[in-house]
Design a protein that fits this description.
By secondary structure, the chain is an alpha+beta fold. The chain contains 16 helices and 15 strands.
């Protein structure tokens, strides 16, 4: 689960003391205050306006290698939405880290690209200076673009808790926190295990399945329905909705069908809000309905936006992490065998897969006041794109950053974000991922991936994931009841 989605929010109170995260950047003491406290490394004062020297045509510069060579001058010309960039993005972001970890990209009227681990962490911790807000009609003259990229895609609704700041954001995370902390996750574990077992049971006797469509997608989808109060049996149409939006060409039939289904899905969330106002329960939706933010309560539209954000994160990011990790293990039988033989390694491997795949690769922010970051002067209103994926491959922080090291012990990755918008669902995501991987390794350890039939998400700057991953394996026996656990 994230700020789109693996970045929904930071848990932000004392319950984070239960966080088993084995790296220092996950401490919540600084996160809980970073929206208001000065942040080391940021000078949020009257910095001079950004100035960039005119840049010659890179083709005319002897010895250059294209637009990336502008990075030494603090400016680049890169189209993050281009499929060619997507194919070489790991190398492109690496060159940025090495030459200019905060660079001005001239595309889309200009925005900052933040590539280094230190710089991404500084910006993410300081929500007052680098805001996640989305305000279509700003009152202070700043165009707050939100978190979903530059330029902001059309028809993307406000992402609930991920695109608000200040008292409302603090009230939201306090209301949601009791349903996301480790103790709440432990209460969900039995359902997670029953659901994972049931979906694998449906295919195990056949010796063939699609690990994305038949397992990695439905398991977190059912759990997400349970979390937000939707009927568990509705998991497939919600999963189809979000995967149709993220995985396929926006001009294609799947995306068009997704858009056609939106009004009915919004109406279902509105019905939850109306029902909880009339019939309160001890659940997340009721907590949102009854929360108080400086004397104000959430409207039905606000509740819908928060639930939408949670559903998107719950349905997509854990499914993507699980699919990509199982695909990797299918191609690396030595690591798969070691994880199967040494279950105690799974927590370390989980953090490594989070770091390496960084399924929510980038998120955007808006600069709220003149500031300095990475030696660059930023102006109020400047958009910027933070690359979690790039930060998580920074050689200044990680040894062998481009390899999956399943027993990596020091792993200060930023896959869940950091600061006031750190992923509120991170405990649930970790636990669900480990249950699903363990289920596969225990029951179909010899699975073979059909690479020719495997398909990945359409190229885009924000998220990565898988559409299909057919596998074959030695058939096994069902171990659970025949009826679904809902």
């Amino acid at each position: 689960m994230t700020d789109r989605s693996i970045h929904d929010d930071n848990t932000g109170n004392g319950d984070d003391a239960d966080d088993p995260t084995p790296y220092p950047d996950a401490t919540s003491a600084s996160d809980a205050t970073s929206a208001v406290d000065p942040t080391p490394g940021v000078t949020a004062t009257a910095a001079p306006p950004r100035t960039v020297e005119p840049t010659p045509d890179p083709a005319a510069v002897a010895g250059t290698d294209g637009p990336m060579d502008m990075a030494g001058r603090g400016e680049v010309d890169l189209d993050l939405h281009d499929s060619g960039f997507h194919e070489r993005r790991v190398a492109e972001w690496a060159r940025l880290r090495e030459t200019c970890p905060v660079a001005w990209n001239r595309r889309h009227d200009g925005y900052w690209m933040v590539a280094g681990h230190e710089e991404v962490g500084i910006a993410a911790r300081d929500g007052a200076t680098f805001s996640s807000r989305y305000e279509p009609e700003p009152v202070d003259g700043i165009d707050y673009i939100g978190i979903v990229g530059v330029p902001r895609p059309k028809r993307v609704p406000k992402a609930g808790i991920a695109e608000v700041e200040g008292p409302v954001h603090l009230a939201l995370r306090r209301a949601m926190n009791p349903f996301m902390v480790p103790r709440a996750t432990q209460e969900l574990e039995p359902l997670m295990r029953r659901v994972a077992t049931w979906f694998l049971d449906q295919k195990i006797a056949s010796g063939a399945m699609d690990l994305v469509e038949d397992f990695a997608t439905p398991v977190p989808s059912v759990l997400t329905m349970a979390l937000v109060g939707l009927p568990l049996g509705d998991w497939k149409r919600w999963a189809d909705l979000f995967h149709g939006a993220l995985a396929h060409d926006p001009a294609g039939d799947a995306a068009r069908q997704t858009r056609a289904n939106l009004p009915a899905m919004f109406a279902q969330l509105d019905e939850i809000a109306r029902d909880r106002r009339a019939n309160p329960r001890d659940d997340l939706a009721t907590a949102l309905i009854t929360m108080d933010a400086d004397g104000e309560v959430l409207s039905d539209d606000d509740v819908r936006a928060v639930l939408w954000n949670l559903i998107g994160g719950g349905l997509d990011t854990t499914a993507s992490l699980t699919s990509l990790s199982l695909h990797h293990l299918g191609a690396h039988p030595d690591q798969r065998a070691r994880l199967a033989a040494e279950p105690a390694l799974l927590p370390l491997a989980t953090e490594e897969f989070l770091r390496f795949f960084s399924v929510n690769e980038t998120l955007s922010r808006t600069v709220t006041c003149p500031a300095t970051l990475g030696g660059r002067h930023l102006s109020a209103g400047d958009p910027l794109v933070l690359s979690w994926a790039s930060a998580n491959r920074d050689a200044a922080v990680f040894d062998r950053p481009d390899e999956v090291v399943i027993d990596r012990e020091r792993n200060p990755h930023l896959a869940f974000g950091v600061g006031p918008h750190r992923c509120i669902g991170m405990h649930i995501a970790r636990t669900m991922f480990q249950i699903m991987v363990r289920e596969v390794l225990d029951r179909i350890p010899d699975y073979v991936v059909d690479e020719e039939a495997t398909a990945f998400y359409r190229p885009n700057p924000e998220v990565v994931g898988m559409v299909r991953m057919p596998v074959t394996f030695t058939p096994g026996a069902r171990i659970g009841p025949p009826d679904p656990p809902w």
